[in-house]
Amino acid sequence: MPGQQNIRRRGFTLLEVALALLVLAALLVALTRNSAGAPSGKDPSGGTGLVHKVMLDLEAQPYDTLASFNGRRFYDGDAPQRSSWAVDLAVFQSGVDLLQVDATLTELESGHALAQVCTLRSRR
Fold first, then answer.
1. Strands 85-95 and 112-122, how do they pair?
2. Is position 3 within any domain?
């Protein structure tokens, strides 16, 4: 077509690079603010470690004693005041010779339930 030039661009324009850097900077600022707002000194894996320990301890319990754990709360520290995480248990009959065990992980500072693990245990 007369009057039109077929121009092929290679690379990015200065404006495209500037916009990409602006978006990247905004993302980094948002991530930095988000991590700064997180409770300091808390290892998020500490909560999952507590759930794992509680579930392993329950696995070692005989079937007939599991119901006695219903409503119990376990902490990651030696006292509730010095703990970051808690695991609350609910144990109930869900079938003939079948118990359901629900473990709910709570972050104590905010009071938010962060995870729940459910398992079934049968009489052996």
1. unpaired
2. no
Element (DSSP H or E) covering residue 112: strand 112-122
The β-bridge partners of 27 are none
Q: Band of the pLDDT at 115, cuts 50, 70, 90?
A: confident
My answer on whether 57 and 35 are in the same domain is no
| Residue 89 within any structural domain of the chain | yes
Structure tokens at 100: 């359901």
CA-nearest of 42, 39, 50, 45 to 105 is 50
Residue 4 domain-assigned (yes or no): no
Query: With a threshold of 0.70, does the pTM exceed it?
Result: no
Provide the residue range defining the domain that includes 18.
Answer: 11-39
Residues 34-69 pLDDT 10s: 444 444 445 556 788 888 889 889 889 999 999 999
Using left for φ > 0, alpha for ψ between -120 and 50, and beta otherwise, residue 111 falls in left
Assess if residue 74 is contained within a domain.
yes
